[in-house]
Amino acid sequence: MSALSYPMPEAVKASARLNPQTYAEKYQQSIADPEAFWAEEGKRISWFSPYSQVKKTNFAPGELDIQWYADGTLNACYNCVDRHLSERGDKTAIIWEGDEVDVQKHITFRELHEEVARFANGLKKLGVKKGDRVAIYMPMVPEAAYAMLACARLGAVHSVIFAGFSPHAIADRVNDCGAKVIITSNEGRRGGKGVALKPNVDEALSGDACPTIEHVVVLKHTDVDFDMHAGRDVWWHELIGDCDADCPPEVMQAEDPLFILYTSGSTGKPKGVVHTTGGYMVYASMTHEYVFDIKEDDVYWCAADVGWITGHSYIVYGPLANGTTTLMFEGVPTYPDVSRIGKVVDKHQVNILYTAPTAIRALMAKGDAAAKGSKRDSLRIMGSVGEPINPEAWEWYYKIIGNSKCPIVDTWWQTETGGILIAPFPAATDMKPGSAMLPFFGVKPALVDNEGKKLTGATEGNLIIEDSWPGQARTLWNDHERFEQTYFSTYKNVYFTGDGARVDEDGHFWITGRVDDVLNVSGHRLGTAEIESALVAHEAVAEAAVVGYPHDLKGQGIYVYVTVVDGVEANDELRKTLVQWVRKELSPIATPDHIQWAPGLPKTRSGKIMRRILRKIASNEYSNLGDTSTLADPSVVDSLIENRLNR
Ligand code: WT7
User: Fold this and answer.
1) Residue whose CA is closest, atom 2 of ligand 1?
2) Which amino acid residue places its CA nearest to atom 24 of ligand 1?
3) Nearest to 328 by CA among 349, 314, 318
4) Which of 53, 102, 270, 367 is deepest in the core (most CB within 10 A)?
5) What is catalyzed by this enzyme (predicted)?
6) Residue closest by Cα to atom 14 of ligand 1
7) pLDDT averaged over consecutive 10-residue blocks of the chain (647 residues)?
8) Which domains does the chain have, with CATH numbers?
9) Cis amide linkage into residue 427, ω under 30° from 0
10) ∠ CA(314), CA(411), CA(146), 5° rounding?
11) Best mutation site among 510, 525, 587, 589 for ligand 1, i.e. most ligand atoms within 8 A of its Cβ?
12) Residues paired with residue 253 on neighbouring β-strands, in sequence order
């Protein structure tokens, strides 16, 4: 296989930090002596007291231990805000672009400091202190970043809950981490419409559903009013009304938790991925600088949401630690029309654009209209994240949005990795559409077969990482055993990513997608088990099985098999009800694409559902089902094939 390759554009080559040789040398150093390498790189962060220990990590069974810079002390908020005041006080820290075209705001580092410190003092008044957990359920407004940074300033552990999640999902996350305060907004705005948030919080907290919550802080972002619960709810502006901007940052140990972020796994409830302070800040800041080849005057725009890890590492912590101007966008790429992204790029003279394949495909579906009305000549580098980018979308992004002069950094990473692990760093390498290419410094990716045997040469297998890097998650909140079990038990002495990958004859990495029961729908990570448990919670559903199938726009679509309880009529009406039910129980991002009625599901004699078969039927590849001899009742399969929906 010889992949089409694009050279790094000349202008980028001339100004980039790296070239193939400097990349190779630095990578070699990082692998040969990680201790010395990270001791040096750790200095990019400001420490209150320096570290003498650097790396103390062990992936061995029963001895799992991940510590970086353990005896150093620092504060993440100080690194993102205070330390820039002397040199960059008047520089724009955040550009906010609202949902409507003519709504925007510029916030300097000095203003950021004032906003964050005042809000931190407000949280203090509510009793928030070091080690407490605070949930954040906010639209894409600067206050979402203020809230995160204010928590970090106090040493409180934030847990951002994506604003698209429903009341049930909020309650689960709040209860798992025992949050004391939840910060929200009356409404967000997306695509010209208001999105009610406060009512979702009220519903999540109704009765005594979330007993640990003492207060709800509500930002008044739009003119819509909702009831405030006396004694519990407090307006953001009233809370900070008498607060000043004097709020000394708490001194934190490098291994104190900075935040929890819930993500989906292949089984059970969402996992509270825990990131700590020192290693995470070093890694987020360093990867941001190298992957996007950041220059001092760059305007950088990551079009993700702060509800996901991309928003944490590459809208807030990475860029602000580097003193970079970061753009936050409240709206959607298709409002008022598909030319919006290009127009925002021109208006704010954006140099770096980081977005997801699903957004690119949505724009591409409208022909070249996305390029109308903008020049996009300020762009220098463009990124992609969240799912494999198909070569067609890659080329469209490259030619139409980037005018064939901006490299695309296809960044592979995960909530658990804290930062980017594999990418085509400018200008370390040529680019191959669809390939994430090369590991970041200190990162040792490899492939293993299903028995854990390491594979070499050009081949395909399960993607593992052989040694620790500073940005790695340390545990799952309240469930260290599950952490060990999920990532360190399938294959011994390595971190298992859950992804499959291919390495080509040049040693470049191609991510092929999840090898577990995790779906990637429009770049959103969803566990099939989560969707199934939402479905079986409905009284009409006896059993449900959820699988993914290839979807042109979303990457993967959601295909559901449902067995109804005896006596219930399986009709279109019920189908609609179940679709609404999942949206309400979990989130609109989990909306089923197909619901097939299944009088029976293919099971082994021991009762295990054979998802391999269900996946094939959903993908319309039913002619080659492989071995079905272990099925308890093989006739079930014929009936499912006959009534399949994705034709
Ligand atoms: C999963 C992690 C990384 C931040 C956003 C998603 C898939 C992510 C790529 C890429 C192919 C990718 C993987 C991974 N993924 N980036 N560039 N190419 N696949 O974080 O929600 O934790 O999801 O997203 O399958 O395991 P996440």
Assistant:
1) 414
2) 386
3) 314
4) 270
5) acetate + ATP + CoA = acetyl-CoA + AMP + diphosphate
6) 414
7) 79 96 98 98 98 98 98 99 98 98 98 98 98 98 99 99 96 97 98 98 97 98 96 98 97 99 87 98 98 98 98 99 99 97 98 96 94 98 96 96 97 98 97 97 98 97 98 98 97 98 97 94 93 95 95 95 96 98 95 96 88 94 84 89 92
8) 10-502 (3.40.50.12780), 522-643 (3.30.300.30)
9) yes
10) 10
11) 525
12) 73
The C-alpha angle with vertex 146 and arms to 142 and 150, in degrees rounded to 5, equals 175
Binding residues: 190-193, 310, 386-388, 410-415, 499, 514, 522, 525, 536, 538, 541, 583
Here the tokens at position 352 are: 């770096």
Q: What's this model's pTM, rounded to 2 decimal places?
A: 0.96
Task: Using the CB atoms, write b or e for 572-582: b if 16+ within 10 Å.
Answer: eebbeebbebb
Question: Looking at the predicted complex, does its ipTM rise above 0.95?
Answer: yes
Distance 414 CA to ligand 1 centre (A): 5
Tokens 């202190």 correspond to: 129
The amino acid sitting at 483 is F
Best residue for ligand 1 mutational test, from 413, 421, 440, 514 (most atoms within 8 Å of Cβ)? 413
Residue type, 548: G
Distances (CA, A) of 409 to 75, 126, 142, 406: 30, 43, 26, 9
Helix axes 572-585, 528-536, angle to 10 degrees: 120
